[in-house]
Amino acid sequence: MAKRKASPPAAVRRRLGGAGASAVGWALRVATSIVAWTLLLHLFTFLGIPRPTLPVTRPSCLGGRNSSAAAEAVAAAGEAAHLAPPTLHPRRLYKSNGYLLVSCNGGLNQMRAAICDMVTVARYLNLTMVIPELDKQSFWADPSDFGDIFDVNHFIDSLRDEVKIVKELPQKFSEKVPLSMQPISWSSEKYYLRQILPLVRKHKVVRFSKTDSRLANNGLPLKLQKLRCYVNYNALRFTPSIEALGNKMVSVLRRTGSFIVLHLRYEMDMLAFSGCTHGCSDEETEELTRMRYAYPWWKEKEIDSEKKRLEGMCPLTPGETTLVLKALGFPRDTRIYIASGEIYGGDKRLAVLKTEFPNIVRKEMLLSDDELRPFQKHSTQMAALDYLVSVASDVFIPSNDGNMAKVVEGHRRFTGFHKTIQLDRKKLVELIDLFEDQELSWEEFSVAVKELHMGRMSQPTRRRVIPGQPKEEDYFYANPHECLGPARKRRERLKHIEI
């Protein structure tokens, strides 16, 4: 007679039953959370509120290390959210006053800011905007089109409730020669309303041949300022291939903990056109001068290099930057990503920096030749990779105050006031000269450098306004304070502004 299998004791049965109920309850909670999160994202999209971002671990630059597995899990979750199908806003219907063609000039970040301004102008004047043309004639001679750098469909769809954007002019205008003009720099919205709108209505198609700094930093209606931010931080998304490589580099850098980005703008074009030759040999100075004279569009030819340096108008040399990093207290093992093109003078000029901070990396060290090959000879696309790493870094330190330095600083403010050290180059070169002349000890030099920058680390503040001197006041995209803090929670529509 077969023995009956003994049944579990009652306590064990209760425990098993409780575990099963617990598992079911856990699964229900997870499913409910997923549904709620999905509905919340759709609600945020429908209302025009920027989607809440997943928490990205951002460790202290000089402190502890975080789990690479956790960082990669967060990155994977962010990528999944990025791939979610977007919910489109209802298209804004309006009678268009004409078509706006835009020819951007300059490097990536100068063009990026210009695109934000031109979208804002097109929205304010009720125009139809054609996808911008990028600069192919400048020093970099990059043949990239808008769609090689930015996600065109996302750009059009994310702004459909504000302004109509088309990929090309309609056939009926294809043979029409547009009115070509350069808007006045630093203009208010009233200039565009009174001077530009009548021209568009008359000619139907207008081309802006220069777009850098054509909209004022200050004095614009709040809703226009917020639209500039929305274009910059939401509508202008890089192509999937650029985003993927940028995210990969950030993930690789995060595996060993925190990292800083040094935007070392010590490149041939910067030195030639600025006339900054401090630390260069006589042969190098002659080469840079010849290059400046070879470009007829560059108006300033005779430049006093030392005078500019003492006025704080030159990028710090790699050697000067090394002294500053040490004085600020960055340890020798700090992981430093160099965001720049080819450094003038090559490895020889970087020797001192590499000796003091040997843990230096560049994109060529993080990506394979096959991964980088499609981006080579496309300086704007390479700059986009540097942009993504710079925005994600724990600390961002630019050696000059060019367009990338300013636009990245503003983006880091927008994403949570992440630390950007704004070097005071005018006072720094004075301190460096005193130290090198042995008039300051290392301790005195280090204390002075730290004290000089205590209030220059992207703390919340308002832009400095200088009436009548827009070039001297704070740049909108370096500190878009109208869009920060509580103001950044919701983009207000411009429906009531009609022309």
TrEMBL record:
Q: In which pathway does it act?
A: Glycan metabolism
Name its cellular compartments: Membrane
Give the matching InterPro entries: FucosylTrfase_pln (IPR024709), GDP-Fuc_O-FucTrfase (IPR019378)
Tree of life domain: Eukaryota
Name of the protein described by the UniProt record = O-fucosyltransferase family protein
Can you supply one Gene Ontology CC term for this chain's record? membrane
Signal peptide positions are: none
Q: Which family does it belong to?
A: Belongs to the glycosyltransferase GT106 family.
Topology term for the membrane: Single-pass type II membrane protein
Organism of derivation: Urochloa decumbens
Which processes are annotated in GO (biological process)?
Answer: fucose metabolic process
For this protein, the parts annotated as crossing the membrane are: 21-49
Q: Does the keyword Transferase apply?
A: yes
The alphabetized UniProt keywords are: Carbohydrate metabolism, Fucose metabolism, Glycoprotein, Glycosyltransferase, Membrane, Signal-anchor, Transferase, Transmembrane, Transmembrane helix
Upper classification of the source organism reads: Eukaryota, Viridiplantae, Streptophyta, Embryophyta, Tracheophyta
- Record-level Gene Ontology MF annotations: glycosyltransferase activity
